[in-house]
Design goal:
The complex is a heterodimer of chains A (about 60) and B (about 775). With about 60 residues, chain A is mainly alpha-helical. Helix content of chain A is about 65%, strand content about 5%. Chain A has a domain at about 1-35. Chain B is mostly helical and about 775 residues long. In chain B, the strands form four sheets. Chain B has a two-stranded antiparallel ribbon. In chain B, strands 2-3 form a two-stranded antiparallel sheet. The longest helix of chain B has about 35 residues, at about 425-460. Chain B starts with a strand and ends in a 9-residue tail after the last strand. Classes of the chains: A mainly alpha (about 60), B mainly alpha (about 775).
């Protein structure tokens, strides 16, 4: 089978299998993402907005 | 004392350093870009000087903009956002400094060696092996600093930007190491371990994913952090960002073969590359829409805020380039577009529009925060935006027009497809000259915009006091109960086990012999049934496993790594097996003589492969123009492969014997004497420099180690062979009226050019009678 696969034209099977594998990953992740709890989503989405803008310190090395 | 608060001061010094380096190297890279664009119109700008010649400084441009400009921008963005997302200072000030200075040293080394002609001869992987080692070491420093910081984080959740950074670090390391595997022949030269189609596949697996994981994923992470910050609203859909990440990481790695469509690459790999490239439409556009929709309710701010202008335009260009990429990966479209300026337009829509504008937006956003002073001039930033945008549009429109014109003219036939409509390559070149000039103007405008940014940067920071951000956090970060995911649970958890078994069985099914194949099919089906059967009872636990994965950096990193490794191995391993001498059919390459090998190294040194392909595609116009299509076995001993990716000049795969030696000599001395209107540089130094034959024994020894069937040759035998062949060519030249000493470099290069396309037939295999 291996020899036939690489040396002859049986690419369809290979490409279809790769496509199905990738599509499975895509669907699984989408399913998982859609089912994420709203509270968790909001928590993640707010992470860049943590209060980090306190008074800055002058860089002593500059 | 978990309730005791402490103040953390971020290491923003290294962010400032990388930001400054971004501006400087951006200027250098873009300036060289404008110069090489102008050289294609005005050959005189090569100045007949080796270190200013197109073939040597084009790699300087690509390396400068990718690794110096975008690299420094990426490090600035990653370090700034990571510290804030994990609420921790970078783990090590020493590693941060080492990372910065080490990277700058690498860039300087590249800027010196590339114009001097020290190159590996592979696009975006030209740097010589000592610099490759330095790159790997500094990348490890970056990785250690980043993951160490993650390990010390006070925020357990990993924001999606960090996922993109993790994928970048592990994947770039893998790609870089594999594509740079070489055996040195001396301090400044090496041969890649791969050859021919193997080398082509590995190179474009790397080249494509350098775009994916160096120019895209880290910048997407930067988008997911800085765009919400600038718009002052969270990302439109965090769910979509999760889908964006996993699908992009999983799919991107498979798409590399789309750079080799209609070539000697096995057909199944071409189909694989095309299929996965088309699949990239979904995640890429998902990401683009997520970015643009984050601006909902904030569009009015674009009128006044240059940062948002740059981000909105950058994300739009990302969408445009990622629509165009899959389109170009369709084999029939690729037949028109490949080797033409259309690809150059596509690449620059991505780099100038996506990378350059994301960099500009990030710089304008960071400047006031890192120097605690308002931006010197918002008006200048707006001016930069409009100059840059007009520049990109001119550039891209010119290259689309030029590329499609090239493709149509070079592929045009008459007499029912039996005769080329434009047999002279120069007809095409002279037709696209106005578009090439427009490219120079567009690129010049974009560079002018960057100069405006540099001035704005300088005026903003002049006299300002650099500042570091701070944050108050609890001294001991409370870890959520039960959030740990051990390595055992990571790899032996049901989701991982099922995934590995499914892939394993599928591989057995595809690659095994009859019995193994049947077992693989049965196993794959059993896996699927077991998953479905267990889902109702175990689904909750599997969900919990995934939730924990999002809080545990090491298991997350390892699984991401395995996802990208799988895509690479499945393409590369079969190709390594197929390209073995015993598997080659039809024709096989004859190993180069020592003089031809020396000539080939000169061909690589001068960057000839950047304008001349050595791959006649399986397309009628290619065959009519250049001869019989290239076979896989005809480059089996080429370390590195020289298939090329662009035809600024004609293909050379079968140029050997097509013209007499004197033709090549006159052509290299002054191309316009032979081909009026040509834009090829002159190479007077090849006629003046003596060939360095002393390195040949070492080079042939390495070639032999790599599997090229050279017989046992002593150093003296090698020198004698060089001498004999060179004298023969010099004698022939003298008979044609040119006196060239046999020891000159040009003689070796002519010897190489005259052997291109020479092969021996492989007798058909006979199957043994059972």
């Amino acid at each position: 089978m291996f020899k036939r696969l690489i040396l002859e034209d049986s690419s369809t099977l290979y490409v279809i299998t790769a496509f199905v594998t990738a599509a499975t990953v895509f669907v699984s992740i989408t399913w998982r993402a859609v089912r994420m709890p709203r509270a968790q989503i909001e928590k993640f989405a707010q992470l860049p907005f943590a209060p980090d803008s306190t008074l800055p310190h002058h860089d002593p090395h500059a | 004392m978990p309730d005791k608060k402490i103040t953390i001061e971020y290491n923003d010094r290294v962010v400032r350093q990388f930001l400054l380096a971004t501006v400087i190297w951006g200027l250098v890279g873009m300036l060289v870009g404008v110069l090489i664009a102008a050289q294609l119109n005005f050959w005189q700008l090569n100045f007949a000087t080796p270190w200013l010649t197109w073939g040597r400084i084009r790699p300087l441009h690509t390396n400068a903009v990718i690794f110096a400009f975008v690299g420094n921008m990426m490090f600035a963005g990653v370090y700034y956002s990571t510290q804030r997302l994990v609420k921790a200072r970078l783990a090590s000030d020493f590693l941060s400094s080492l990372h910065f200075w080490g990277w700058q040293l690498i860039i300087v080394a590249a800027a010196i060696t590339l114009p001097l002609g020290y190159t590996r001869g592979k696009e975006y992987a030209e740097l010589i092996w000592p610099i490759n080692i330095a790159v790997v070491l500094i990348w490890v420093v970056f990785a250690v600093n980043f993951f160490w910081t993650l390990a010390r984080r006070r925020e357990p959740a990993l924001y999606v930007a960090l996922w993109f950074y993790i994928a970048t670090i592990v994947t770039v390391a893998m790609l870089y190491i594999v594509n740079h595997l070489s055996i040195p022949t001396g301090l400044l030269h090496s041969y890649p371990v791969f050859s021919g189609v193997q080398d082509a596949l590995v190179q474009w697996w790397y080249g494509h994913n350098a775009v994916a994981f160096f120019l895209t994923t880290p910048i997407l992470g930067i988008m997911y952090y800085f765009l919400p910050k600038a718009a002052e609203r969270p990302v439109y859909s965090y769910r979509l960002s999760v889908v964006h990440f996993w699908s992009l990481v999983f799919v991107y790695i498979w798409a590399g073969p789309h750079h080799l469509l209609n070539t000697a690459l096995p057909g199944w790999l071409q189909n694989l590359g095309m299929t996965f490239s088309l699949m990239l439409w979904a995640p890429s556009w998902g990401g683009m829409l997520n970015g643009l929709l984050t601006l909902r309710g904030a569009w009015h701010k674009l009128r006044t805020d240059p940062v948002l202008k740059f981000f909105a335009a950058a994300v739009t260009f990302y969408g445009m380039a990622t629509f165009e990429g899959p389109l170009l990966s369709i084999k029939s479209v690729n037949a028109l577009a490949h080797y033409t300026d259309w690809i150059i337009g596509h690449v620059h829509a991505g780099t100038l529009g996506w990378n350059g504008f994301m960099a500009a937006g990030m710089i304008y956003w960071l400047l006031p925060r890192l120097w605690n002073k308002p931006l010197y001039s918002t008006a200048l930033a707006n001016l930069h935006f409009w100059i840059g945008t007009v520049g990109i549009l001119l550039y891209v429109a010119a290259m689309w027009t030029s590329g499609i014109t090239q493709g149509l003219m070079l592929n045009a036939t008459t007499e029912h497809g039996t005769v080329l409509a434009y047999p002279n390559f120069l007809d095409t070149l002279n037709t696209i000259r106005p578009m090439m000039l427009m490219r120079v103007i567009g690129g010049g405008l974009y560079l002018a915009g960057w100069v405006v940014l540099a001035y704005n940067f300088y005026r903003t920071v002049r006299g300002a006091q650099p500042v570091n951000g701070t944050i108050e956090v609890y001294e001991e970060a409370p870890a959520p109960a039960g959030s740990r995911l051990s390595l055992g649970a990571t790899f032996f958890g049901a989701p991982t086990v099922f995934a590995v078994l499914a892939v394993g069985f599928a591989t057995m099914w595809m690659l095994g012999s009859d019995l193994v194949s049947t077992a693989g099919l049965a196993g794959a089906v059993a896996c699927l049934i077991a998953c479905v059967a267990l889902l109702p009872s175990r689904g909750g636990a599997w969900t919990g496993w995934y939730e924990k994965l999002l809080l545990n950096a090491l298991p997350f990193t390892l699984l991401t790594f395995f996802a990208v490794v799988a895509g690479g191995l499945i393409q590369i391993i079969p190709t390594m097996i197929v390209q073995q001498a015993q598997n080659v059919e039809d024709r096989i390459q004859v190993p180069y003589t020592p003089l031809e090998l020396a000539g080939r190294d000169l061909y690589v040194r001068e960057g000839c492969y950047l304008c001349h392909s050595q791959m006649i595609r399986t397309l009628v116009p290619d065959i009519l123009r250049y001869g019989d299509y290239s076979r896989l076995g005809e480059s089996i001993y080429d370390h590195p492969f020289q298939w090329g990716s662009k035809r600024n000049g004609p293909d050379l795969a079968r140029v050997g014997g097509k013209y007499p030696n004197i033709w090549h000599l006159r052509h290299l001395e002054n191309p316009r004497a032979i081909s009026p209107g040509s834009n090829m540089p002159t190479y007077p130094w090849l006629l003046a420099n003596d060939l360095d034959v002393s390195v040949l024994p070492s080079k042939i020894k390495v070639q032999r180690m790599l599997g090229v069937p050279y017989g046992p040759l002593s150093a003296q035998q090698i020198f004698d062979q060089v001498d004999d062949q060179a004298k023969g060519i010099a004698k022939d030249l003298r008979a044609a009226g040119a006196y060239i000493a046999p020891e000159k470099e040009v003689v070796a290069l002519i010897a190489y050019l005259q052997t291109l396309g020479k092969s021996v037939p492989v007798p058909p295999k006979t199957n043994p009678t059972p």
